[in-house]
Predict the 3D structure of the following.
Amino acid sequence: MAAPHPPRTADHWWRDAVIYQVYPRSFADGDGDGIGDLAGARARLSHLADLGVDAVWFTPWYASPMVDGGYDVADYRAIDPAFGTLEEAEKLIAQAAEMGIRVIVDIVPNHVSDQHPWFRAAVEAGPGSPERELFHFRPGRGEHGELPPNDWPSQFAGPTWTRVPDGEWYLHLFTPEQPDLNWDHPAVRREHEDILRFWFERGVAGVRIDSAALLVKDPALADFQEGVDAHPYIDQDGLHDIYRSWRAIADEYGAVFVGEVWLPDAERFARYLRPDELHTAFNFTFLTCPWEPDRLRAAIDDTLAEHAPVGAPATWVLCNHDVTRTVTRYGREDTAFDFATKAFGTPTDLDLGTRRARAAALLTLALPGSVYLYQGEELGLPEAEVPRDRIQDPMHFRSGGTDPGRDGCRIPLPWNADAPHAGFGSRDEPWLPQPAGWAAYAVDRQSDDPESMLTLYRRALLLRRTEKGFGDGPLTWLPAPEGVLAFGRPHGLLCVVNLSATPVELPPHERLLLCSGTLTPDGRLPADTAVWLRG
Ligand code: GLC
Ligand code: MG
């Protein structure tokens, strides 16, 4: 087992870090009530140290009615009672630091919960009040104001406006329980700057910014016009000013940002990564890319090319709490990710998907930049099909029940194969049911198995930390047979991924560092397999 590694002292740790995403509700249950919590997370930090990650990102752990899994925040300065207390969070941050693991928190600036005191006061105070100016309240259209103020499309299915009893409507790009804040209001800006300081003061090393490209709205709230360049609420120019002021605060603490920026336009995306704005942003081009050699190579090239001019490192992500788990996605006919094509009952070859996910792990970890791992990815957990009567995700309900939603990637983790609920820690049934066979993926079952996904990840992360050539730095494509991706990194490090249907010869090398599968008896690299070599 890998010994706890010393913290990276360099200021630029984030340029090539491996960051583990914890969805606290489903990570580990410390008090046995069926919901994961901070006590559970503290007790399992050693798993992250053994795995060898540099940092851990917690999705929102704040006081919340949990309509959208905590992305509906009622109080940014309090921990939700189901998760624990502020003191518990402070202990967790300190304990992680002792193990050399930094903590990143998730800030959701686009909206708050409808139970947030600001929103409750706004509803109470009535039309024309200063309280309403913190949100987007408007009279409706139509003879009696019975129609929503504009036609903006929602980020989830369903309407973007909801009417309050006095007749005004308020804007919510997500659920009605997530009213959008008015970022033109100075109090909204001040409050968020203060929240950043609150968490930086508590020793967090970074902040993930939720829905980072949505905060600023066209002030006219004009109808959505197809074919017009500027979208009324995505990627508005005013955002950059906000992130410049945030960057100045982060710099005081040596903290970093990672933005959730879903933007197809590479040039517009890179603007968020200018030296006085965000340090990094998630790379959704790579996450949504199918398991096809030409597409992957193009996604890698485009990513590196768009980051280079602003000097920001790329991030690489294969899955998160919003998307289909990797082994499942790669085992389907359509290996791309798209919210629009999610469906119940999609046929899946999990053996094939797992082989590819193992190869993708080595590919991803060999690329220049930082890597995000989503809890359970290191266990090779598949997407679960959650019984309809147990689904909690609002995306499912707002689609009218056609979209299975995101609960399938949020199933409570299996830790001990022989314990109740696979060692998640709950006395009773966990908040989402674990499917049959879940215990086979348990951490203790995989720990001593040389062939397991967990062993592959532990070895890969150890090599990435101890061998030369990984992380930041140049990447050079090497000549390779059709369907094969081969590239060199500094110090003769080579990565070869075979996406063709037949085994291929390895390039000349001195040493084989790691293989995601088993070479053929004559030393060739099988289909859907990757290898790290020292040339
Ligand atoms: C982000 C989160 C997602 C959440 C949404 C609204 O996309 O990742 O889980 O539902 O924002 O806050
Ligand atoms: Mg609990």
User: Anything to note?
Assistant: The two ends are 27 Å apart (CA to CA). The longest strand covers residues 102-107.
